């Protein structure tokens, strides 16, 4: 299990970052995909924006974007608002059971 | 670079029978030998296997079972575009002069492990392909006004085309209304908007120009090839209304063959979901961006079989490793004027588009008679 998954298990969404290139390395990896230098791990901002969404049964799932770089899919809680692409949202919960899980809420 | 053509093909009926991956592959190899005049095992110097099955050493196992001792043999795996990618590998061996005759066989079982890319952590808990296709669909509807009825027409058209394909998994016609009423899996994708995983096998023979006359009187030449991978993770797709990898692959294939979209008479495109065909028609240059649905409707209304004459993935079923090779077999038959009731009149230039994992990778091939 890598650092990304370990931190997710503790409810922390972290990403690899290359200190030399000063960029996030997503998907998470041990080495920078530009210079192959060693990465450092840091927590990702919990504030992002909604890119796209759809619904299965009563659950809305979506693509959310963080720090203008990281796009992930997860479940969206709309708080009874009608979602629309581009809206602000926040990551409210993440986990790793047998796979990664992300839960967002419209801001 | 040597000229390379298709010297023969072998197909079997797509189904859900309980058989081994080796049996599936051998059945289409047998069909290829049955169909190919003068082909003997000694002629074959490359054997490539295309599959997502977990079996190891498969190209060598298939070589032994088929009585072939090839110079070069290995498997090619790239999820859904394994098939067209293995054709590119075979082309490269022949074009470079390393070999003259390559047998490419693809097969998949309905429960294969290639349906879900577990590695892609960016998909979170939504790893099944229906989720990315829902995102593509919703984005295209919002940006271009594509409707659920437009999507239903894609599926109805391809299921109808598949009725004339004896190897297709489906043998039932579905009306636009049937698709509209089929069960919603998500708000944006219904069950009949999805291609079905099934068993299937397909084989093609690629041959150098010097040797091809031995096997066929009407070779079909592979004149344009393009392949592009933008990422492996779905969420690297910047624009969900477009398939960037397909655009790149098509551009390379058109350039190599000195053809343009208007020159293509018949095409097999990767309609894993209804929305895929609409986006692909736009990105391959057959329709203006945002007008893919109109192109499909015209095809359907006029019973024009130019796009997906064998029924595409929606009508034929989608045995991943076999799909790209079955597409090549169809275009070969079309350009040889041997496609029977599926024949597109006077087809001389054909195109195959095969993609994988939410269009993170695409392959485009252009053929000429």
Question: Could you characterize what this model shows?
Answer:
The complex is a heterodimer of chains A (107) and B (369). Chain A has one helix and eight strands; from the N terminus they run αββββββββ. Chain A has 107 residues and is mainly beta. Chain A folds into two domains: 3-43, no CATH class; 47-106. In chain A, the strands form two sheets. Chain A has a five-stranded mixed β-barrel. The longest helix of chain A has 7 residues, at 3-9. Chain B is an alpha/beta fold and 369 residues long. Chain B folds into two domains: 4-113 and 199-220, Thiolase/Chalcone synthase (Peroxisomal Thiolase, Chain A, domain 1, 3-Layer(aba) Sandwich); 121-190 and 223-368, Peroxisomal Thiolase, Chain A, domain 1 (3-Layer(aba) Sandwich). Helices cover 36% and strands 17% of the residues of chain B. Chain B is built from twelve helices and nine strands. In chain B, strands 3-2-4-5-1-6-9-8-7 form a nine-stranded mixed β-sheet, sandwiched between helices. In chain B, helix 2 (58-65) links the parallel strand 2 and strand 3. In chain B, helix 3 crosses helix 12, helix 5 crosses helix 10 (292-301) and helix 9 (274-283) crosses helix 10. In chain B, 62% of the residues are buried. Chain A binds chain B through residues 4-5, 26-28, 51-56, 61, 63, 70-75, 85, 99-102, and chain B through 118, 120-127, 131, 134-135, 137-139, 142, 185-189, 233-236, 240.
Jot down its keywords.
heterodimer; A: 107 residues; mainly beta; 2 domains; 5-stranded mixed barrel; 3-stranded antiparallel sheet; 7% helix; globular; B: 369 residues; alpha/beta; Peroxisomal Thiolase, Chain A, domain 1; 9-stranded mixed sheet; 12 helices; 9 strands; 36% helix
């Amino acid at each position: 299990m890598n650092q990304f998954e370990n931190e997710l298990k503790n409810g922390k969404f972290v990403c690899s970052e290359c200190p030399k290139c000063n960029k996030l390395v997503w998907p998470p990896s041990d080495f920078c995909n530009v210079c192959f230098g060693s990465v450092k791990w840091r927590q990702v901002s919990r504030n992002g924006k909604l890119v796209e969404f759809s619904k299965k049964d009563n659950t809305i799932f979506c693509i959310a974007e963080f720090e203008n770089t990281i796009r992930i899919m997860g479940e969206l809680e709309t708080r009874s608002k009608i979602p629309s692409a581009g809206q602000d949202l926040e990551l409210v919960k993440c986990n790793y059971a047998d796979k990664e899980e992300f839960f967002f809420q419209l801001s | 670079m040597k000229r390379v053509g298709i010297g023969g093909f072998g197909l079997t009926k797509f189904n859900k029978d309980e058989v081994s991956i080796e049996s599936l592959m051998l059945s289409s190899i047998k069909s290829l030998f049955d169909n190919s005049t003068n082909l003997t095992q000694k002629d074959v110097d490359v054997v490539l296997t295309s599959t997502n099955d977990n079996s190891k050493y498969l190209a060598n196992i298939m070589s032994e079972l088929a009585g072939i001792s090839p110079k070069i043999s290995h498997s090619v795996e790239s999820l859904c575009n394994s098939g067209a990618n293995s054709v590119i590998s075979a082309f490269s061996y022949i074009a470079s002069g390393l070999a003259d005759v390559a047998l490419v066989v693809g097969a998949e079982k309905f429960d294969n492990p290639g349906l879900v890319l577990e590695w892609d952590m960016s998909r979170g808990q939504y790893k099944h392909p229906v989720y990315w296709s829902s995102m593509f669909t919703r984005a295209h509807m919002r940006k271009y006004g594509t409707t659920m009825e437009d999507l239903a027409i894609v599926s109805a058209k391809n299921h109808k085309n598949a009725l004339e394909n004896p190897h297709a998994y489906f043998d039932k016609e579905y009306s636009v209304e049937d698709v509209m009423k089929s069960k919603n899996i998500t708000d944006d994708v219904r069950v009949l908007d999805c291609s079905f995983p099934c068993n299937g096998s397909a084989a093609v023979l690629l041959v150098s120009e010097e040797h091809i006359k031995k096997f066929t009187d009407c070779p079909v030449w592979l004149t344009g090839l393009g392949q592009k991978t933008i990422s492996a993770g779905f969420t690297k797709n910047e624009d969900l209304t477009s398939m960037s990898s397909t655009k790149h692959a098509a551009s390379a294939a058109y350039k190599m063959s000195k053809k343009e979209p208007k020159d293509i008479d018949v095409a097999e495109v990767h309609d894993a979901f209804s929305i895929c065909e609409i986006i692909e028609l736009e990105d391959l240059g057959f329709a203006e961006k945002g007008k893919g649905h109109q192109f499909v409707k015209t095809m359907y209304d006029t019973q024009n079989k130019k796009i997906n004459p064998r029924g595409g993935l929606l009508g034929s079923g989608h045995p991943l490793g076999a799909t790209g090779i079955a597409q090549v077999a169809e275009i070969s038959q079309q350009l040889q004027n041997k496609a029977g009731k599926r024949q597109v009149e006077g087809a001389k230039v054909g195109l195959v588009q095969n993609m994988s994992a939410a269009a993170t990778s695409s392959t485009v091939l252009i053929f000429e008679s």
